[in-house]
Design brief:
The structure is a single chain. This protein has 399 residues and is an alpha/beta fold. 39% of the residues lie in helices and 19% in strands. The chain has two domains: 144 residues, Nucleotidyltransferase, domain 5; 183 residues, ATPase, nucleotide binding domain (Nucleotidyltransferase, domain 5, 2-Layer Sandwich). The model has no long low-confidence stretch (mean pLDDT 96). Its cofactor is Mg(2+); Mn(2+).
């Protein structure tokens, strides 16, 4: 089955064309600056690339440009859009309504619209991508794959906030978690690397511009760091992560801010960027630290310390750990962050091998010492494969 994978953002659109049965990617790319001018970056035939300036006033023109590039001209990989058998969509927030991937219909779209207050930056773009694909490729099945679905197995004592209970019953205020497709993929890969399907205790650190940690027992999430929104949890590229409500209130009073202005700071001007004053890109901050920049050093130490605290708490929640996994741009590439996170975790059975840790590789690998009681894995994530595979399963089961 040839699946068109779509990840629609507010001003960008990532895509991939994949056969999940044989795990073959035919093309991938991104549309950027939608609504401004429009740039299409298209990768195909393994090592070929195209960069096209195409007017994209709306997402519809962006998707039309992608379909045209896939079926004609230099970047052509298929003869017709009829070769596409299904469309898989990344959907950020499914609330409590969606605990698994689902075939898109009017009811699904209407339910997602009701959830927009929980993800005002993401759900509208996700819905728009679905509606445009229904218009441009009528009759083709569309499947929504939710970031939140994997975390729906959390027990109530893990996902509830200690607010008045009616805030949950009236407004659905609780922890939902995100990056679910990545946590699902990496935890399953770890189980295979452990060669065990049962009684597995796995901690996944998805570390990138957005970061989260999950505790996974026997393939099911029992806790995760992100909450009602993605700002809770770890310190990230521009997000603050955990901040006490009192600190937020005090900042608002001191700076005479509205709640919207305060949240904008917490989401877009905090985290690695806010502390370093240099960049939200950890690579630039690590370089600054090496050049003696004290604020960059502080940002790096804070990032590692925050991750380490969550790892330790999840070892307790899981009653031990069989594998600690690192994934995402930072998790896969920043050896120093992995070293700092694992330092002192020997008593928990996690002993990092510094030589293995500093070897670069694009494949999954074990970087623990041979004598380590628990394993430490670096596993490249593949969220697109999860979306494509879920789409294949949902469409096949619906026939």
């Amino acid at each position: 089955m040839l699946v068109f994978i779509l990840n629609a953002g507010s001003s960008s659109l990532k895509y991939q064309l994949m056969n999940p049965i044989i795990k073959k990617v035919f093309a991938s790319g991104i549309c950027e600056r939608i609504g401004i001018d429009g740039v299409l970056k298209h990768e195909y035939s393994e090592d070929k690339e195209l960069k096209l300036d195409i007017a994209m006033p709306t997402h519809k023109e962006a998707i039309e440009a992608v379909l045209s590039t896939l079926t004609s001209g230099e970047g052509k990989v298929i003869d017709s859009i009829n070769d596409i058998e299904a469309i898989g969509h990344r959907a950020v927030h499914g609330g409590e309504e969606f605990s698994a991937s689902i075939l898109v219909n009017d009811r699904v779209i209407e339910t997602m619209k009701k959830l927009i207050p929980l993800a005002p930056l993401h759900n509208p773009a996700n819905i728009l991508g679905m509606e445009i694909c229904q218009e441009l490729m009528p009759g083709k099945p569309n499947v929504a794959v939710f970031d939140t679905a994997f975390h729906q197995t959390m027990p109530d004592y893990a996902y509830m906030y200690a607010l008045p209970y009616d805030q949950y019953t009236k407004h659905g205020i609780r922890k939902y978690g995100f990056h679910g497709t990545s946590h699902f993929f990496v935890s399953n890969e770890a189980r295979q690397m452990l060669d065990r399907k049962h009684n597995t205790r796995i901690i996944v650190c998805h570390l990138g511009n957005g970061s989260s940690v999950s505790a996974v027992h026997d393939g099911k999430c029992i806790d995760t760091s992100m909450g009602l929104t993605p700002v809770q949890g770890l310190m990230m590229g521009t997000r603050s992560g955990d901040v006490g409500a009192g600190a937020l209130q005090y900042m608002m009073h001191q700076e005479n801010m509205t709640i919207e202005e305060a949240l904008d700071i917490m989401n877009k001007k905090s985290g690695i960027l806010g502390i370093s004053g240099k960049s939200s890109d950890l690579r630039e901050v690590l370089e600054g630290m090496q050049n003696g920049d004290e604020r960059c050093r502080l940002a790096v130490d804070m990032v590692a310390y925050n991750i380490k605290k969550y790892v330790g708490s999840y070892v307790a929640a899981l009653d031990g750990v069989d594998a600690l996994c690192f994934t995402g741009g930072i998790g896969e590439n920043a050896a120093l962050i992995r070293e700092k996170v694992c330092a002192g975790l020997d008593a928990m059975g996690l002993v990092l091998d510094p030589v293995k840790n500093n070897k670069r590789s694009k494949v999954a690998r074990d970087i623990a010492t041979n004598g380590s009681a628990s394993r430490i894995f670096v596993i490249p994530t593949n969220e697109e494969y999860v979306i494509a595979n879920d789409t294949f399963k949902v469409v096949t089961e619906s026939r």
